[in-house]
Amino acid sequence: MILTRPSLACRRADGRRRALSGAFVAPFEGVLHTNAVHSGASIFDLAALVAIVGWTLLEFLIIARIGIARREP
Questions:
Q1: Which of 34, 38, 56, 70 is the 20 to 30 A CA-CA neighbour of 62?
Q2: Overall number of domains in the chain
Q3: CA distance 70 to 64
Q4: What's the domain range around 47?
Q5: What is the distance between the alpha carbons of residues 21 and 25, in angstroms, rounded to a whole number?
């Protein structure tokens, strides 16, 4: 098995992905007084989970406010 280092393009794309996801997760960091749970080599990102729930709730509130989901005959 031959292992190679990631190319420069992959590293740049990963940096952009982290910057973009960081912008969405940043408002929710510290809400639970911890951002991640570590177990051995694994890391569970609680801030990302809270961000997913938070942005989904915000989306539902906006949709309800502007009445997109309202049924009218």
A1: 34
A2: 1
A3: 8
A4: 8-66
A5: 6
Phi/psi for 71 (5° steps) reads -95, 125
Q: Using CA of residue 65, residue 53, residue 51, residue 12, what is the dihedral sign?
A: negative
DSSP category for residue 7: P
State the amino acid at position 65 in one-letter form. Answer: R
Give the C-alpha separation, 56 to 50, whole Å.
10
pLDDT tens-digit profile, the chain (73 residues): 455 565 555 556 556 666 777 777 888 777 777 777 888 888 787 888 888 899 999 999 998 888 876 777 6
Residues paired with 36 in a beta bridge: 45
Q: First and final CA of the chain: distance in angstroms?
A: 63
